[in-house]
Every structure is written in C-alpha cells, then in structure tokens.
Design a protein that fits this description.
The chain is of the alpha+beta class. The protein has four helices and three strands. The chain is elongated and about 55 Å long.
Length: about 70
C-alpha cells in the first residue's frame, strides 16, 4: 500500500490544476475521498487525486492519420 500524501484543498488544487471549489464538488459527489481535521481543515490524499487522472486517447493514433507540415 502506498503511503498517503496528505494535502489541504488549496495544495491539492495547485497540484492538480483545478480549483478548490471543483475539489469540493468532487468530494460532495463521492469521486474524491476527504478527511476533516478539526472543525474546518479538510485534507485529501494526493494519491487518490492522481488516480482520477485518465489518459485521453489520441485520435490520430487510433485512426492511423498522419500529420502534415505547414510551410511558413
């Protein structure tokens, strides 16, 4: 099991490139687990956040298309 990498929502937002508001929405709809520390502080495991990333298939690679260069 991987060691947790705890981060505040602000730190996690910087890490992932999304807003803290988006992270709160993901927590509310169950996509991302979060843990409350005290009355206000919320932390997430960056490993869980990284696990949400999924690669987008390359359309050109899937269709066999090739690129053409433009002349300047």
């Amino acid at each position: 099991m991987t060691e947790p990498r705890w981060a505040t929502l602000k730190e996690a937002a910087l890490h992932s490139g999304v807003s803290a508001r988006t992270l709160r929405r993901w927590i509310a709809d169950g996509r991302l687990a979060a843990h409350r520390i005290g009355p206000r502080k919320v932390q997430v495991d960056l490993n869980d956040l990284d696990a949400l990333r999924t690669p987008i298939p390359n359309h050109r690679a899937a269709t066999g298309a090739t690129t053409t260069e433009r002349s300047a």
